[in-house]
Amino acid sequence: IRQRVVPTPAALAFAAWLGEQEGGAGEDLLRTRWAQVLDQSPATLLELALRAKNLGLIHARSGGNLIEIDASGLDPLARRN
User: Fold this and answer.
1) Closest CA to 35 of 21, 18, 52, 56
2) Average of pLDDT values for 11-33?
3) What is the pLDDT of residue 77?
4) Which residue among 4, 21, 27, 59 has its CA within the 20 to 30 Å range from the CA of 78?
């Protein structure tokens, strides 16, 4: 029996990274199949994204109708100097 997920900011960060690998970007990362597995609304996922930002996992910001999410920093092959 599948139980509802109680996602963490790290789980959202990973879901966003997976969504980016499939070509998603920005607000669309909150609606990918990877985000849907987290059993939360896009609004709740945005809150998790902002918490993940505060933890230094991803870059995210929201203002007005614009949502930016960048999880590319999680890519182990794209080391930044």
Assistant:
1) 18
2) 95
3) 80
4) 27
Distance between CA 41 and CA 57 in Å, rounded?
21
CA distance 28 to 32: 7
Structure tokens at 13: 């960060």
Residues forming beta bridges with residue 69, ordered by sequence position = 60
* 50-74: pLDDT as tens digits: 999 999 999 999 998 899 999 988 8
Q: Alpha-carbon distance 45 to 9, whole Å?
A: 9
Residue 49, token pair as written in the block: 């994204």
Query: What's the rounded Cα separation, in Å, for the pair 23 and 81?
Result: 24
- ∠66-81-56 over CA atoms, to 5°? 45
